[in-house]
Write a structure and sequence with these properties.
Layout (H helix, E strand, L loop, with lengths): L2 H12 L7 E3 L2 E3 L7 E5 L3 E5 L6 E4 L3 E5 L2 E5 L6 H5 L7 E7 L4 E5 L4 E4 L5 E6 L5 E5 L2 E2 L1
Antiparallel strand pairs: 1-2, 2-8, 3-4, 4-5, 5-11, 6-7, 6-10, 8-9, 9-10, 11-12, 12-13
């Protein structure tokens, strides 16, 4: 099979959303919707949820975090990043949406928002013990 055909087929397959992510208008809803944050871990930012599937959201790219108009840009590897996010422990996700371009927005019960913009790399990853995975960045959700 010619290399160019393989690349086209891979790109077409990659554009399909993960089957467990529910379409929600122009977005996909991640299964962390309604789940409570159990713990935060480093290196980088790993958010563990207290659901039966043991969901983990890992942030690998720069992200925005805050509430209202008080939102700042952070890097997941910067020193003290878990202190910035520590208020999320035991809070519940009220919305978790990825747009078709790869940007992820997670809203928490106290109004905090975590936004991971699309970028040149896979900026976020979702996984659980069932083996379900998704990632966003490079122009899409895969």
């Amino acid at each position: 099979m010619p290399t160019s055909l393989i690349i086209v087929l891979r790109e077409a397959m990659a554009r399909e959303r993960p089957h467990f992510m529910v379409p929600h208008g122009r977005y996909y809803r991640l299964p962390i919707y309604g789940q409570r944050v159990q713990k935060l871990e480093a290196p980088f930012v790993q958010i563990h949820f207290a659901d039966n599937d043991q969901s983990i959201l890992q942030i690998d790219g720069e992200f925005l975090f805050g509430s209202g108009s008080d939102i700042h840009r952070y890097a997941p590897s910067q020193p003290g990043i878990l202190k910035v996010l520590c208020g999320l422990e035991n809070s519940t996700v009220t919305e978790a949406l990825a747009d078709r371009g790869g940007e992820l927005t997670v809203t928490f019960e106290h109004g905090d928002r975590l936004v991971v913009p699309d970028g040149p790399y896979e900026n976020w990853h979702y996984r659980n013990k069932k083996g379900q995975t998704a990632h966003g960045g490079v122009g899409g959700v895969f």
